[in-house]
Design brief:
The structure is a single chain. The protein has 337 residues and is mainly α. It folds into two domains: 101 residues; 181 residues, Histone Acetyltransferase, Chain A, CATH 1.20.920. Helix content is 49%, strand content 8%. Strand 3 and strand 4 form a beta hairpin. The termini are far apart.
Length: 337
């Protein structure tokens, strides 16, 4: 009622009156989304899909002049592909007509039959073959070519900014030499993992996580650096890049000794990736080991006397702490103990 009163005023509203009208609009307006997304997995049932679609269909019938977009992610991981065929092609749901102003779109994972030549360190995701009626709706975008991937990475790095430690209002780009180092290192690491671990082992998510971790390592300082009172402290971009690449790519690989113990002759050891990264990051392994020794020790952690601080313990503690602080997914796999 208050909003109607304000709108009925024929005089040109003042600034204060305009603010009141806007506030009343925000308070009393009920906002409904026009875009809906559902992530599919094998546990999704037809009943759950029907419950998901029910309120959307009701709203679409109330607003026939508005188009609603419904996005189903990873459709072919679901066991309800027949129901999707019915919605997409027949425009019905269990025999009931769907509103005409619903626009369906979906993403699928490629269905590739595994062979002895494509066995990799990790298993491919489990997907189902699409119904024949949906095959003609597929549009394959493929993967980025190496040149396109490089252009993408270079442009992402050019836009990447890190906050100044002394003034959080100031942001700055990485220096040119660091940008080139980061671009070459990410490209080499991505290519290495795709060739030896499988095409599904890396994606653009790894690239974004690299940026997130570089920004984290750019800001973090040890106690002795803070206590020194050095206001002119500047992070080392090479160190930040090396640590980010280590957590994203290097630590996921086993060592040569691990492969020998498991009699694994297919999985590449991390030493091969280290050799590759050392071409763009001088002293890559020395940087990593120095930071591990500096971070994981009895001065920073309460470690029981019976626990030896070996390389595995250092790597696990370092990865766990950084992942928790940066909210980066982490999965530690290994034999008990």
């Amino acid at each position: 009622f208050q909003l109607q009163t304000l709108l009925n005023d024929s005089r040109s509203p003042s600034i204060q009156k305009s603010i009141e009208i806007f506030n009343e609009y925000l308070i009393h307006t009920q906002i409904k989304p026009l875009f809906y997304r559902l992530l599919l997995h094998p546990g999704i049932t037809e009943e759950q899909l029907e419950q998901f679609m029910l309120p959307i269909c009701q709203l679409a019938r109330e607003l026939p002049q508005i188009e609603f977009v419904i996005f189903f992610d990873e459709v072919n991981t679901s066991s309800c592909l027949g129901l999707f065929k019915e919605m997409f092609m027949d425009r019905t749901l269990h025999g009931n007509n769907l509103p005409k102003n619903l626009f369906f779109t979906a993403a699928i994972n490629p269905s590739i039959k595994p062979s002895d030549n494509t066995l990799v360190h990790r298993q491919d995701y489990l997907v189902h073959q699409l119904p024949q009626a949906l095959e003609n709706l597929k549009v394959s975008y493929g993967t980025l070519e190496s040149t396109s991937l490089r252009d993408y990475i270079v442009k992402k790095i050019a836009m990447f900014r890190v906050n100044s430690e002394n003034n959080h209002q100031i942001v700055m780009p990485l220096e040119e030499y660091a940008q080139e180092m980061l671009a070459d290192s990410i490209l080499n690491a991505q290519d290495f993992c795709e060739r030896y671990l499988g095409r599904n082992s890396v994606s653009q998510r790894e690239i974004q996580r690299c940026f997130n971790l570089i920004e984290f390592f750019w800001k973090i300082r040890f106690d002795d650096e803070i206590e020194s009172g050095n206001d002119l402290y500047q992070p080392n971009p090479v160190r930040c890049i090396a640590l980010a690449l280590t957590l994203i790519y290097y630590f996921r690989l086993p060592t040569k000794e691990d492969n020998i113990q498991r009699n694994d002759k297919q999985t590449p050891p991390r030493e091969e990736l280290a050799t590759l990264l050392s071409r763009t990051i001088p002293n890559f392994l020395d940087i990593i080991q120095t930071e591990l020794d500096k971070f994981v020790n009895i001065d920073n952690f309460v470690i029981p006397n019976a626990v030896a601080i070996n390389q595995a313990v250092r790597e696990h503690i370092f990865a766990i702490v950084v992942s928790i602080v940066t909210r980066t997914p982490l999965c530690i796999i290994g034999a008990p103990g």
